[in-house]
Amino acid sequence: MAYRVRPAVIGCAIRPAIIGRDRSLEEIIYDISQAALADAGLVIEDIDGIVVGCNDQFDGRAISVMMASGPTGGVDRDILSTPSASEHAFVLGALRVASGHFSTQLVVSWSPTEASSMSEAQRLGADPYFHRALPLDELSAHALQASALNHVWPNAWVFAEAVAAKNRRHGAVAWPDPPARPRAGPARWPLTERLTTQPVTGAVAMVLAGESFVAEHSCKNPAWLHGMGWATEAAFLGDRDLALAPALVAAARQAYTEAGVIDPTAAFDVVEITDATAYAELIAYDALGLAPRDTIAARMADGWFARGGRLPVNLSGGVITFNPVFCTGMIRIAEIANQVRGCAGPHQLEGARLGLAHAGSGFAMQYQSAIVLGAS
Amino acid sequence: MSGAKDRDRVGIIGIGQSNFRSRRDDASYPDLVREAVVPAMLDAKLDFDAIDAVVYSLSPDAMVGIGNAERLGVDAVGGRNKRFLRINTGGATGISSVTAAYYHIASGVCDVVLTAGADKVGECGDSQTVLNKIWDPTYERALPLGTINMLAMSAVRYMQRYGMTEEDMAYVTVKNRRQAALNPRAHLRKVVTIDEVMESRVISWPIKLMDCCPQSSGGAAMVLASEQFIRDNKLDAVWITGVACRAETYWMGDRMGTNPTAEHADAYALGRSFEQSYRMAGITDPANQVHIAELYAPFSNTEYHAIDAARLVAKSGESVKRVRDGEFELGGRLPVNPSGGTLCTNAIAVTAMARVAETALQVWGRAGAHQVEGARVGIASGNGGDHQIFGTMVIEA
Amino acid sequence: MQVELLGRQEVWNITYDHALGATASYFFTQIRDNCKLFGRRCAKTNKVLVPPRAFSDETLLPTTEWVEVGPAGRIEAFTFVYEQFNNLPEPPYAFGYVLLDGADTALGGYFKGVDLTNPREAATRLAIGTRVVTKFAEQRKGDVLDFWFEPV
Asked: How far apart are CA B225 and CA B253, in angstroms?
C-alpha cells in the first residue's frame, strides 16, 4: 500500500533532559514547538495540523491536550492527541500528511517529572480487577521481561550489561557537555542499577511535510518516510511470552514491506532502539531482524552495534543516557531523522542515508513501532 | 488542500452501540467495549483478520480509573499484533477517533479500520470532580470549575447577547427526551414537560438538573473502509465526505473581554470546523442542504450555539426562535439530535462517536423509530476540553 | 446460576509539584506581597492578557511588558453553584470572570457579598457588566484564593 503523498521530516528539536524549575510545563512545550519550527525554517502559519503525545497522569491534567493546545500553536488550528504513546503522535501526523489533506504536521511530545511518584502514576495503568494491588509499575514490568529473557537465555544478563555500557559510551560522545549527569535508577531484580536511569523531564517536536510542500519550499534535507509499522501486544502481562516481541515483529514487517527492505542487517546505516532497559534492546535486535537471538553474542563480539561497527545502534546514547520516560519513543524517531538529514550533531554517522527508529512504550514494551527514514 | 472528490472516499460499513445506562456492575470496562465491537463487526460482515488497524477512543483515564486504559481494551478490539493507537480530545474523543481512523485509510496505508471505546462514568464517584482536574493548576485549578459551571457561564452570556431564557433551555430538554423515547440505545428516555425541567433543582445557575446530560456507561464501535475495499467486496456503506477539527483558546477569560476571537457564548472553533468540513463536502448552503444533525450538546443551552455554529440558521442567536417553532425536531424541517443527543446519553469516551454513528444510521435509513424521513446528508459534531476542541463530519448516503 | 457481583474501591492519590514559571510566579508574588494585579501585553495585538502568560496563544509571540490592572473591573460571566461535588466547596457559592480595568481578557475568581438564596435575583445583582472590586485576603499565600470580587 503506497502513501498517497510521501511525508518527510523537515525539522526536529530534541531536549532529552530539561533541568531546573524556572519554566512551567506550558513554557517548555512552547519552547520545543518553536525550536522545531525554527529548525524547519517555518512559522506556525505554515502548519495545518498538530498531533501531541502526552500522558494525563504524568502531566497532572485530566485532558493534557487542553493546556498544550496553546503553546503548540493549536489555537484556531486542527489538533489531536494520542496519549497511548509519543510515537503514535508521529504515526498519526504522518498518516495525515500521507492523506494529502494536510501539507504539514507539527508533532510534539513531552514527559514532565512533576508527579510525586512516577511509579504511582504508572501503577494506575494496572487494571483494578486483577493487578492493581501488585507493585506493577513500568520498572517492574521491565524487570519481569528481563527475567523472562534470562530464563530462556541464561547469559542474557551479560549482554544486557554490555549493551548498557555501549549506550553510555555513545552518550558520552553525543553529549560532550550534557544538560545533566544521568543518575542510576533503582535496581529491581534482575535489573541492576547499571541498567536503569532516573526519569528526567524532556520534550521533543518534529515537523512533517508532504512532497509538494517540500518542493515548493525547497526544504534542504528532508528525511523521507520509507515505511512505518506500529502494533500492540496483549494487555495482560500473563498473556504474553515476555521474552518475545511479536508486536514488534508485526510492526517491523509492516515497515519493511512499505520500505522495500528485505535484509535489515544490510539495508540500514544507523538504528535507534528504545532501550527502556538493555534487555528490551536485546529483544528488539531479534524482533527487528537485526540479530536473531543465537547470533547476538557473535555480532556483539564483532562490534556490530557499537560506534564504528556494521550497524550502530543508539549513537544518541539511548534511554540509559537520558530517560524522559514518555517521549523516549519520539526521540528515537527524531534522532534517526536527524541522522539521515545530516544534522545529528557530535554523534552524526558520516554518510547515513537510511535509518531505522524503534519506539517502544508501556508495560514491558506493550506498544511497538518501527519507522524507516531515508535521505532520498 | 483538495476536496474529497479528487480521491477515493472513506465509507462506514459497520456500527455498534450499547444500550447506554448508568451503572453496569455486570460488566468490566473491556466487556463494555466488546459489547459494541461485536455488533459492529457483524454489521460490517467481517472477521477480525480483515481489520488493518484499530483506533481506540478513550478520554480522561480518571473516569474509568485506569491509567492508559486503552491497553486493557486491546483484546476487546482484537488488537493483538495489530496497528493500534488511542485518541483523547476530552468529550470530542469519539469523533476525533473516527477522524483518525479516516486518515488511516485516506493515507493509503489501511483498507479497513475499527474504532471503538467505552465509558464507565458511573463508577468514578462524580465526574465533575475528575473534570475539575482538566483546568490548569497554575491559575484555575483552585477555582471550582467543572464542565457544568463552565457551560452555565456560556448560558449567562448567551442570555445576555441573544435573549435566551431558562424556558428556552428547558424546551431543548423536552424536545430531546421526546426523541430519546424512540431510541432504545438512549439512557434518559422519560418524556418531561417544561414545568418539570424548570422545577428541577439548580445545579449551576441557570443550568438545572434536567438541563444536564446523565453519566452513562456503554460502548460504541464503527468500522471504516476504503472505497476500493467496499466496491471489491460489494459492501453496503455510507460515506464520510467532510471531516475537520478545530481548537480555540483554552483560556475561558480570553473568550470574553475586548474583542475576543472566540466568544464564550458561541462556539467559535466549532463554526470553523464546520466551515472546513462543509468546504470539503461541497456544501455551500447547510441550512438547506443538510437533512439531519447530531450536534454534541451535553447541556440544553449548548444546543443553541451548536446550531448557530453549524450555520443551520443565518445568524447566531436565531436558533432559539427556530427551535421553539419546531423546525429542528423530529417531524420538523431539519431534526437536530433525533437520537436524544448527548443530553440524554453521555458515555464521555464515545459520546461523540455516537453522534457520528447516529448520523450514519440516519442517512443509511436504519435509524428505526427515530428515523428522519428521506435523510441523505447528515452532520455530526463533538466538543472536548473546556469547550475548546471540536470535531465535525459530513456523512452522506 | 446467580453470580455474586463484587466491587473494589480504588483511590487515585498522586501529588504533583507543578513549576509555575517566572511569569505566573511574578503575578502571584505581587498579589501576596503587594495586593497588586498584573497582566502581560502581547506586542502584536496590544492586548493585555490576564492572567499573564509568557506568550500569547493567539499570536505565539512572547509577551513583552507587565501592566498593572484593576483592582476594579466588570463582570463578564458568572454562575451560582448549588450542588455539592466531591472535593469541591460546599454550596452555595458564586464565581465567574471579571475584566479588570486595563485588561483585555478576563480573570476567574469567586464572587462574595451577594445573597444567593434566589438565583434569579442574584443574577440581576451580578449581571454581566456589573462593576466589581477585587478584595484581598488578610493572609495571602500567592494563590488564586488570595483574592475575590465583590460588587461595588
From this structure: 42
**Is the confidence at residue C18, as pLDDT, over 90?**
no
- Specify whether the backbone of C150 is left (phi greater than 0), alpha (psi in -120 to 50) or beta: beta
Is B195 strand, coil or helix?
Answer: helix
The shortest CB-CB distance from C8 to any of A44, A116, A128 is to A128
Whether the per-residue pLDDT at B5 is higher than 80: the answer is no
Residues of chain C with C-beta less than 8 angstroms from the C-beta of A21: 19
Residue C14 domain flag: no
Is there a domain that residue C117 lies in? yes
Q: What total number of domains does chain C contain?
A: 1
Query: What was the ipTM of the complex prediction?
Result: 0.95
Cβ–Cβ under 8 Å, residues B322 and B190: no
Determine the Cα–Cα distance for residues A49 and A52; give it in Å rounded to an integer.
Answer: 10
Candidate from A79, A99, A250 with C-beta closest to B389:
A79
A156-174 and A138-152 are packed helices; what angle lies between their axes, rounded to 10 degrees?
130
Dihedral (Cα; A283, B56, A227, A235), 10-degree rounding: 10
A193: helix, coil or strand? helix
Please state whether beta strands A104-111 and A202-210 pair in parallel, antiparallel, or not at all (unpaired). antiparallel
Asked whether residue A26 carries a pLDDT value surpassing 60, the answer given is yes
Q: Which of A24, A30, A71 sits opposite C20 (nearest CB)?
A: A24
Contact A269, A349 (CB under 8 A): yes
Answer whether residue B323 is part of any domain: no
Residue B327 makes CB contacts below 8 A (sequence gap 6+) with: B333, B334
Chain B residue with minimum CA distance to C56: B249
Q: In angstroms, how far is CA A134 from the centroid of its own chain?
A: 28
Interface membership of A364 toward B (CB under 8 Å): no
- Give the DSSP per-residue string, A110-137: EE---BS-HHHHHHTTS-TTTTTTS---
Domain-located, residue C12: no
- B261 or B66: which leads in pLDDT: B261
**What pTM was estimated for this model as a whole?**
0.95
C 45-74 residues with CB < 8 A to A: 53-55, 57-58, 60
- Give me the helices (H) in chain A, please: 25-40, 56-59, 65-72, 86-98, 118-123, 138-152, 156-174, 211-216, 246-259, 264-267, 278-287, 293-301, 318-321, 328-341
Q: Per the structure, how many domains does chain B have?
A: 1
By mean pLDDT, which of A54-58, B81-85, B122-126, B331-335 is the weakest? B122-126
- Average pLDDT value for chain A: 94
d(CA B180, CA B338): 7
The residue in chain A having the minimum alpha-carbon distance to the alpha carbon of residue C26 is A22
| Residue B98 covered by a domain | yes
Q: Are A335 and A316 in contact (CB under 8 A)?
A: yes
Residue C126 lies in a domain: yes
Residue at grid coordinates 543516557: A321
Say if B59 falls within a structural domain.
Answer: yes
Residue A287 CA to residue A290 CA, distance in Å, equals 8
* Size of the B and C interface in Cβ pairs below 8 Å: 136
User: Is A353 exposed, middle or buried (CB count within 10 Å of its CB: 0-12, 13-18, 19+)?
Assistant: middle
Question: Which of A8-22, A49-63, C129-143 is predicted with the least confidence, judged by mean pLDDT?
Answer: A49-63
Which residue, chain included where needed, has cell 456560556?
Answer: B154
C17: closest chain A residue by CA: A114
Q: What is the pLDDT of residue B2?
A: 41
Check: CB of residue A100 under 8 Å from CB of residue A4: yes
> Would you tell me the crossing angle of helices B166-180 and B300-309 to the nearest 10 degrees?
90
For the segment A247-276, the average pLDDT, to the nearest whole number, is 97
Contact B206 C123 (CB under 8 A): yes
Domains along chain A? 7-118+201-216 (3.40.47.10), 122-199+224-374 (3.40.47.10)
Q: Domain span at residue C54?
A: 21-151
